[in-house]
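Quick one: co-fold with NDP.
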Amino acid sequence: MSARIIDGKAVAKSVREDVAAGVAALEKDHGFTPGLAVVLVGEDPASQVYVRNKGIATREAGMRSIEHKLPADTSQDEVIALVRRLNGDDEVDGILVQLPLPGHIDANVVINEIDPDKDVDGLTEVNAGRLVLGKDALVPCTPQGSILLIKTVMEDMSGANAVVLGRSILVGKPLASLLLAENCTVTTAHSRTKDLEEVCRGADILCAAVGRPEMVKGDWIKPGAVVIDVGINRVDAPEKGEGKSRLVGDVDYDAASAVAGAITPVPGGVGPMTIACLLKNTLTAAKRRRGL
Ligand SMILES: NC(=O)C1=CN([C@@H]2O[C@H](COP(=O)(O)OP(=O)(O)OC[C@H]3O[C@@H](n4cnc5c(N)ncnc54)[C@H](OP(=O)(O)O)[C@@H]3O)[C@@H](O)[C@H]2O)C=CC1
Ligand SMILES: Nc1nc(=O)c2c([nH]1)NC[C@@H]1CN(c3ccc(C(=O)N[C@@H](CCC(=O)O)C(=O)O)cc3)C=[N+]21
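Sure, here it is.
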């Protein structure tokens, strides 16, 4: 058997087109253009790439992109002062503080300074609470994108056994909440989980967000399962030439796609959905802030 490949790039494109249409309608009917502010502290090369890609996608959707790049030695108080300024700026509808932050800054403190109604990453305590309680939250982008991808191959998730590998605030925990809201029976596994392979073998939907290259093997997967590979890991690729690298997920893709019913590739799976959902959240935040 060979798994159906879930084309995250194509689904993301359609989400972005919907957002662009929504932005155009806001402009026409209400005369304003949503703005997304991205704050980057330091020179982490991967973060620089993501921030640049977010800026391009934001403008492509017809929104304004406001980029704040601060040196790595910026103090926590200065970052907080910037977030507060953006909270008070009516031109700014969404605020994203790129993670990870340099070691001398407490990410938790900075994130919770963001106005929850502008928290398009869905990482503040208020939005995390709303998500768990089933109230109108701004939902973290990667988990939201993962659910949209599952829906392309599974009409109804009710009663499915879903296993989430990983319990981070950014991915694992909110993804488990969303799967529960879809009426899955949810197991959250992590580094202390016993018999991890056996737990995975019980999954009708297996989501891997551990940050360990190709950790999930083909024989961990239930035949026909839907596999969502959130992991983005850069590994050496000497076969491409000296000093070259490539991206792999948390799942051994070749082995898994021989067993799974459907699977997301890396790249081209969850990653593009993350950016698409960020734009979607920015449009949502812009409308809500104006009572639309
Ligand atoms: N596609 C996208 O858009 C995005 C992709 N990512 C990628 O997703 C992955 C996860 O990211 P993130 O959630 O931020 O990572 P974190 O490092 O914050 O969390 C990793 C989680 O995996 C668990 N874990 C680690 N090792 C093992 C193991 N050997 N067995 C079982 N569980 C383990 C940890 O368990 P414990 O809690 O017990 O330590 C932890 O809960 C990364 O590859 C990241 O690059 C992240 C964000 C967006
Ligand atoms: N506050 C905050 N919010 C985030 O959502 C956030 C963050 N910080 N820090 C880092 C992680 C990682 N992340 C990705 C987004 C897009 C791709 C993506 O588009 N990936 C492409 C490939 C990109 C490439 O080629 O390098 C793909 O998978 O096809 C990947 C990873 C968001 N994150």
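If it helps, Residues 8-30 form the longest helix (23 residues).
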